[in-house]
Amino acid sequence: MISTQATIITIGDELLIGQVIDTNSAFIAQELNKLGVSLKNRIAVGDKREDIIQALETAAKSTDIIILTGGLGPTADDITKPLLCDYFGGKMIVHEPTLAHITNIFVNIHKRPMIERNRKQAEVPDVCEVLFNETGTAPGMLFKKENKYYFSLPGVPHEMRWLMLNHVLPFISKQFVTQKISHRTLLTAGIGESFLAEKIAHFENQLPSHIKLAYLPNFGMVRLRLTGTGNTQDALENEITIQFEELKKAVDEYLVTDEDETMEMVVGKLLKSKNQTVSTAESCTGGYIGHLLSKNPGSSTFYTGGIISYDNRIKTEFLDVPTDILTTVGAVSQEAVEQMAKAVREKMNTDYAVSVSGIMGPGGQTAEKPLGMVWIGVANREKVFSKVFYLRFDRLRNIEVTANQAINLLRLLIINKI
């Protein structure tokens, strides 16, 4: 079966200069992939007419579906709608349901007058099918030309997602016969990507041609994703399951979870299942560990809180780190993080605690304590364990890696691996 091909075109100068991160493409790509639609290109263009037209023509040469986001707002730099009207040979008309919707938003909900600029958002090319947008003021549009389908969606992420889920994906499902696709993902920790690849080379070499293995390293961990394609969903799922079980056996000593989950999700589930709690004492990460632990719903049942102790005075006054430790071995030391972990666990009366202290950069290093040196401590009611790491990234990356390594050490303590 020949796969259905798609191109995503994101429009906006703000994307090209890095002022706004393009999360729309990632969402669209993931949703298309679930339908078995192959993404051939992702094209980002600025608010220039000739660049958008060139992107449209490039996409039409090789793909069946073109999805555009951005440029549908009420300001002068939002040029997508009039450009598409010209490109597909139409004229602008008022879409009355959209006009009524916009009027209701401004007059009845926001209690503000609707100016002409807002009213013009209800205008659409008469050659498109309007995709009604319940979540905003810019309607989506569907065009067809030479058996190619063009979807134009707002760049506002929550509006784009609603239109994708309620209009675009259902249309594609009905219009195209697509390949069946299946993904299975697991997470490993404690082994680098290259060493992991060597370890499971025998498994990868025996995979059939329609099943691929992808390595997704991040934050000192590696996700492994099996992706299979086929014509029958049930047969494909059975085959993927068999291969996935073999993969799990091959990485057993490094396996964190056999689902597509983050480390903090895994630890949260562990703590919930045991009805246990954790607290944090953070120096170099500035609360980032607490942020990760608390960002998922229900985290209040296992994460009680933390102490951010950048200043040594906070370490001594709130975490009982003796001043002689700070003056002899320093804050970035085994002695300091172990005391921080013990103190925060006791003060917050939790089952577990995590502590970190390190040199994130770009300055602060010494001959004895290089840039990227981090001590991490974890504690329960019976013991304290600590480990030193030497990281090699920039400040933000060092913070992210430290937080994930700390949560992994917490996981290992919970499952009695340390």
Shape-level CATH architecture of the largest domain? 3-Layer(aba) Sandwich
Residue windows where pLDDT falls under 50 for at least 5 positions:
none
Radius of gyration equals 27 Å
Annotation, overall tally of beta strands: 17
| CATH top level class name of the largest domain | Alpha Beta
Calculate the mean pLDDT score and round it: 93
Question: CATH-wise, what's the superfamily of the largest domain?
Answer: MoaB/Mog-like domain
Q: What is the CATH T-level topology of the largest domain?
A: Molybdenum Cofactor Biosythetic Enzyme, Chain A
Q: How many angstroms separate the termini? A: 50 Å
- Tell me the domain tally: 3
- Quick one: overall form? globular
Strand content: 15-25%
> What is the number of helical segments per DSSP (H or I, 4+ residues)?
16
Q: Approximately how much helix is present in the residues?
A: 40-55%
Strand arrangement within the widest β-sheet reads 2-1-3-8-7-6
Question: What structural class is derived from the secondary structure elements?
Answer: alpha/beta
Largest beta-sheet details: 6 strands, mixed
